[in-house]
């Protein structure tokens, strides 16, 4: 336990009242078990105890952690990369839909810089933040400025758009870093946050084997309701939401591997595809509960 920290307060609302929710296994790297707790006040689900900031990096030491690598070494990752070009266009279109006048763009947790490269080609002035040195080196090779931490960006520097694509759930200091990010936003700027949704149908189907849990790398497990509370805590408002429909297929494919690792790749693909499709259909009539959701926020 020397490398783990036990939270005494909810990392979102600071309530001291929370209960054990379920155990989850790190299927990707360590095979360790982790406990998930749920706050009785705001309903946020979070990993507790969790690896501390100094020890969390060891849980990212996997060639399968696709956002830090340029390799495509299995069927799921190959499909991920094929779909990535489509999703990059979607992301850019969503940003341009709201931030009509291009300016400075910050991608927090930029990985290997694919989105920043796309945005730069589209006329944005881009900067990235990426703590992983391997991913940061790849981003720099694309002639993109990238910092290891957000505190290295001068507070006077403001952004028209700040993006966090599947990053918020990884941030140890949720409130502190959240407020730092908001402070870098222009008064009429936009914040784009994509997170997995633990209320999605694929989460319900796979339970503790849902790949969206991704413990301990995912420290928090959001819903549309807890994202509303996050917005309130950061003095922001959510002005729109977008479904990230490809994520249900990708997460379901990974979850099938955890559920039945000995079955054939074809069987896993068919079942994963069906459950991904089923999840997207379910979301339309159930409070927008897609597997992953992009939230568009701005200052009040």
TrEMBL record:
Domain of life where this protein originates: Bacteria
Keyword Magnesium: no
Root EC class: transferase
Keywords in alphabetical order: Methyltransferase, Transferase
Entry-linked Pfam families: Methyltransf_23
Keyword Methyltransferase part of the UniProt annotation: yes
Single GO MF annotation: methyltransferase activity
EC number: 2.1.1.-
Biological process per Gene Ontology, one example term: methylation
InterPro entries membership: SAM-dependent_MTases_sf
Protein's name in the database: Class I SAM-dependent methyltransferase
